[in-house]
Amino acid sequence: MKIYSSFSILFWVNLSRTKNREASLYVRITENGKMAAISLNRKVLVTDWDSERNRVKDTGQKSRILNTYSRRNL
User: Fold this and answer.
1) Domains: count for the chain
2) pTM of the complete model
3) Parallel, antiparallel, or unpaired for β 7-19 and 22-31?
4) Cβ count near 9 (within 10 Å)
5) Please, are residues 28 and 36 in contact by the beta-carbon 8 Å criterion?
6) Residue 2 in domain
């Protein structure tokens, strides 16, 4: 008997809480249909967020630090 499980990680910005063109960065972890959303306590400009790649578009130092932070600190 084979048992299948699923696991996914999604980074997203909460556009409903946008303030001064900045939105909060969240991570959503899903395992076998059960979801949990966690705030990363980081802000990102809405115009800099790439929703297809789920990361910051800009290549500046602040953006690189944020992309690295979100990938390493889960």
Assistant:
1) 1
2) 0.72
3) antiparallel
4) 13
5) yes
6) no
Does residue 64 form part of some domain? yes
Q: What's the CA gap between 38 and 5, in Å, rounded?
A: 21
For residue 39, count CB atoms less than 10 angstroms from its CB and return exposed for 0-12, middle for 13-18, buried for 19 or more.
exposed
C-alpha–C-alpha distance, residues 45 and 11, integer Å:
14
* Measured distance CA(28)–CA(72) in Å, rounded: 15
Predicted pLDDT at 35:
94
pLDDT, one tens digit per residue, over 14-60 is 888 888 999 998 989 999 989 999 998 888 888 888 888 888 887 77
Quote the domain boundaries for residue 63. Answer: 7-72
Q: What is the reported pLDDT for 34?
A: 94
**Position 8 pLDDT exceeds 60:** yes
Assigned domain for 1 exists: no
